Amino acid sequence: MKRWTMASLAGLLLGASAGAAADEGMWTLDHLPVQQLQQRYGFTPSPQWIDLVQHAALRLAEGCSGSFVSADGLVMTNHHCANTCLSQLSRGGQNYMADGYLARKQEDEPKCPDVELNQLDSITDVTARVNAATAGRSGAERIKAERAVSSQLEQSCVGGDARTWRCDVVTLYHGGRYALYKYRRYQDVRLVFAPEQSIAFFGGDPDNFNFPRYDLDVTFFRAYQDGKPARTPQFLKFNTQGPKAGDLTFVVGNPGSTQRETPWTQLAAMRDGSLIPTYGYLSDLRGVLWQYSRAGAQQAKEAQDLLFGIDNSLKVYKGWLQTLADEDFIRRKQKDDAALRDWIAADPARRAKYGDPWAELEQAQRRGKELRDRYTMIAGGRGFGVGTQLFADALTLVRGADQRAKPDAERLPTFREANLPAVEQSLEANVPVYPAFERTMMAWSMEKMRQILGADDPFVRETLGRQSPDQLAQQLVAGTRLADPAVRKRLWDGGAKAIAASDDPMIALARRIEPVATRIRKQYEDEVEAPTKKAGEAIAQARFARDGASSYPDATFTPRLSYGKVAGWKEKGEDVPPFTDFAGLYRRATGADPFKLPESWLAAKDALDPSTPMNFVTDNDIIGGNSGSPVIDREGRAVGLIFDGNIHSLGGNFVFDGSVNRAVAVDTAALVEAVRKVYKLPRLADELASGHL
Amino acid sequence: MKRWTMASLAGLLLGASAGAAADEGMWTLDHLPVQQLQQRYGFTPSPQWIDLVQHAALRLAEGCSGSFVSADGLVMTNHHCANTCLSQLSRGGQNYMADGYLARKQEDEPKCPDVELNQLDSITDVTARVNAATAGRSGAERIKAERAVSSQLEQSCVGGDARTWRCDVVTLYHGGRYALYKYRRYQDVRLVFAPEQSIAFFGGDPDNFNFPRYDLDVTFFRAYQDGKPARTPQFLKFNTQGPKAGDLTFVVGNPGSTQRETPWTQLAAMRDGSLIPTYGYLSDLRGVLWQYSRAGAQQAKEAQDLLFGIDNSLKVYKGWLQTLADEDFIRRKQKDDAALRDWIAADPARRAKYGDPWAELEQAQRRGKELRDRYTMIAGGRGFGVGTQLFADALTLVRGADQRAKPDAERLPTFREANLPAVEQSLEANVPVYPAFERTMMAWSMEKMRQILGADDPFVRETLGRQSPDQLAQQLVAGTRLADPAVRKRLWDGGAKAIAASDDPMIALARRIEPVATRIRKQYEDEVEAPTKKAGEAIAQARFARDGASSYPDATFTPRLSYGKVAGWKEKGEDVPPFTDFAGLYRRATGADPFKLPESWLAAKDALDPSTPMNFVTDNDIIGGNSGSPVIDREGRAVGLIFDGNIHSLGGNFVFDGSVNRAVAVDTAALVEAVRKVYKLPRLADELASGHL
Prior knowledge:
EC 3.4.14.- (chains A, B); 26 helices; homodimer; alpha+beta; ten-stranded antiparallel sheet; Thrombin, subunit H
């Protein structure tokens, strides 16, 4: 509910698995491809190995992955996964995102205001329970029934201790399976080490999704419990040599979402109705942020986190649009869909059982097209709050008060009891608010809303009144007191009564929006999402019936394991080698942003072994959300840190092409070398080497 | 060659006619639909009527239309067609685009630095000449032959007097016909009257392409000859009453381009390879300009012209993308293409004559996809000069010197002798240059180039060197002397020698770019444009052979006549009436931008008759480039001024739907009333009423 992150962006799209080839697959930890692994790599994971990687792997609730790399709670993730924490901790003239942060001793490890780690404890198949609850229902009834059974399952899983446990009912195979995921929750997460942005993201946007690459995209956090470093006996020991070409590699992490089983009709609707408009929308926002940043260092700091996210999303969108314009891909999808449809149609019993889910999908897509703009702008909050803190908090407060007044089973998932600790952590976080930035984002968002919905839309008329977006934004940001975390806490604790009594203009705006947003959201859920999901389930079940459930489900931002090997690829006939090294980094540096090395690296040049491997590529099957995942060897040791995919990996959202799709990682050898020789942090280097503080 | 206007934008896209229905059609003046007009409206235009509208109608070379509305050279066009002139004339604290300009007497009429008017003198069919020259040739040979014959035809048409005459060989029906258009050229064009932007574009972007509408989107210019108002006996007399609902209306103007006969394969390639990327590109630029403008009144003034154009283009693109995602439209196009392809395939003689142009098109599209980014960024100048004056001038000077050294027949069309007066007018225009704006646009353009071509593209590496785009832009803008028109003139007059000797950094940059750009352009022309054109010709000729040449050609920014009637339409089941009035304008005003009325209109409210018709809609078939066209009645009188289409008109680029596609015009009654009572200009009001100064 805070800033509009990549995760919430992905949420605006719709989301499906086929016979896996090459090193394809994002496998759930309870159904690993044991046979393939043995056949292809002569490796069978032991129960201990599986237990280790499961408990060492972490999910960052805001949209990334990580891992424990010491027995004392040390967490490895990406620099770009810590952007929000680094920005939020930067007060006054500090800019930890740009300049890095080094904790030389434990007392120097500051708490991130708003980071939550999840460690997978167990997976339980609850398909029968969910299916029993939703059988024979459709539309609003179905949504209500599914929410009720999910709430029951989650509550009983949490067992009254939501500060320790987090439980989510996860829809797999587009409704072919349901599983209850139970995680241990860590909310006291502190910052240990972050390098400068200029080395973490060396090459910047030009090199993003490209390779060769030279990035030290790492941050180390530490999980605390009861004010002390958490005891985490199951962690990945560092293999300080990194991997070799051809080595078997595993990635355990949380791929966000894929659409590999989604029917073409739905992909086409997504492209035209959502992807293209959002591409334009984000491009516009990027231009605003680019120019905003040029006004000075302070402005650059205010905009950096959001600008980074948007630049990244735009590259992803561009890659998606290319795949969705690929004629071979389209023909293959259409053929696959037609074959399954024919298979159903060929048999009366199947027709009776599955119906014609494609026709239902088409109908739902048409309705989605009619409703989408208002749904996105009003219910999705894009019309007011893109990139803003104050409006997002106001909406969370108003919506939270309203939702908490309902029985748990009827609430939106975000506001179920089991999830309230995450909401509260975010609301109460003492983070800086930049009025000029807030004003700019609100003015821009409202102007876009008026442009997209039209000046004559009744909601637009009522909300803007006789003011311009700029005037209204000015008045709201100047008038609100929500920048103060104590004010937010009072309003949250006061519930519906405090919200109703508030004269804060931002709260007043959110109060005006919320009933309209609720109506629109309900209509979209009932008329678009519910029938889409029902049709998706029928298609998934038909596919199971025809092919057997031998494959992996589409990604759902839950822990998955992928296997593969360290390997380059051929680009336009040329071999791309799988490793880069420090020597290449210094060659690529120009002195000008984004190819400008920080002082620390210029100073350390002579002390470093130029042949140290820096980044490498593997053919593991990953996607956005896997950022920060460890690369693991046969022995269960960390050999790398995933931070990106190559340009061909973007199409992986729709189809995995093992010949060119590559994951990009930082080599553990580079990490150890940098920590010791560039940043001169023997305490951290020793912890990485020994696995203990 | 100056700013990147909508015209040059349209030039990046590719460009085709079917049996015309309803009031469809953009007819050339030498082939009017006389039979349909008689049948549907009982009207047959007399030779005098045709001669009048042909000579009263004008083309504004930069991308608009206009008309003579008095015998003393008074020209009516849109306010938005005068944006560039209004911006260029605004020195110091003046902002004529925002605040308007009123010439109370003839001495107050300032010369627009860079406006050229073209008055159609004659049309000559030169199909046989061109076909004879290109017969049996393809690729580079074909382009060369076509350029040579065009140059010969144009030169002999101009007859050595390029200051008076302008001649263009125009490709009609995608190569089915060629015609030589001869125009009288007016380069001394002065500003008479422009209202405030806030009434010219009342409702701003939110109301753009919408209706009801309340805009006074007008500018009056005056053509001069020999320092005196030009004598223009063929002009449109004002019908000061405006039209009535159902009245027969004609629009004569210059529709820019349409793609109604373009095969689907080409449209799909355009959508995916050009439209979507450009949509994102322009959106990004819009964001930059939006934020740039918010820094203050001076910055808003610097950015306003470009921002207006981009906002407009983005709405057009959005409409196009919607049509190109419409399944019914796609199916119909595919069916049409398949039918013609089958018709050819059914007969060996036809196969021999036409070949398989669709296969050739597909091949050319594939090649286009590979070459497009470099073509657009480097040859098209997007990588450096979007929105800049200084870089555009540098490139014109360098390219012009190079091109003028060649024989006329081998030059790019822009630099043929017959066109040099327009280039020189533009280069020598004494217009303001805003360094901060230039820097911003250059930095942004180069950053986008690096993003799109990649940091490892050899051209990008060589051009940027070790500098960031911002550093390089700063250095170029600070170091160049091209802001001085005298410097530009010396370099132009000095030709290749002066260019080679120049140490101006902007010239040096253009010198480095030009050979690369030339190579890329030639490759794109030879491998993409030439085969596309050849295939388009074959398709057009096959269609002629099957259907007869009974229809109108796709738009080519040449004078066309469309006929229709004043009529509203049904929107979501509701009637939209065809007229708005002054009363509605005052009701819609809120006091906040873009619904804020200027002081002049607030002050005049009581003096105005609230029932005066302000804007109206007709079902004339128009498109971008028709802006500023007169609406003409049966008697050959002006009854309105086209300034927009409704939202359904955007799809008109691909298909005309007479049930909802509407042109939007200012009523002549409103124009006369405003000039007399709001702006209190009796001299101009009398001239409009009498047709004489």
